[in-house]
Design a protein that fits this description.
Length: about 190
Amino acid sequence: MKDNVLKKQFQKRDVERLRNLVKGKHGDKTTAGIGYNGKTKEDHKEGDVWQENGKTWTIRDGIRENITKLDNFKKAAVPLFCPSCKHVMDKQLDPFYFKSFNHCLDCQTKVETKLKLEGKWQEHTNKLFNSEIDKQIEEYKSYFESVLSEGNQDYVSENGEVQKWVGGIDKERARVALEDITKYLNSLKK
């Protein structure tokens, strides 16, 4: 039978490691570490925006995020968990409620139930209804201003021909119509 002889040579660091283990010095180093640690990282606060490695970064809600072209999509996307109650968002109804109220259907139900119990439900619905009317008035005014600011001297047909038209919008009559519509929409408020 062959002799069982250890044919492997131990390196110095292996011997040092075994000595440290026997002596109970488990955390001691056996080799000297050298190297470059790099720049010290800057401390940034909530809302700071900075450039690093060709990318723009910010801190939102305590999390370091890259600023990209898709940031608006991030805002429109529905999260996996409701920010209020931390439960999983349902795929059917919760996206609609999240886009309107920034929480899930269950949280909105709790808010509405609380309003009804406190007797503030009618006031709440009137406030929502009035804010919708105010938005419609603002949109109509901005549309009105954009239409009146357009010139109506030249029009390009489907064939690419430039046509000169005579006439135009009676701006004074349009302003009177705008005032009438605004009065009517304001009369619908509760």
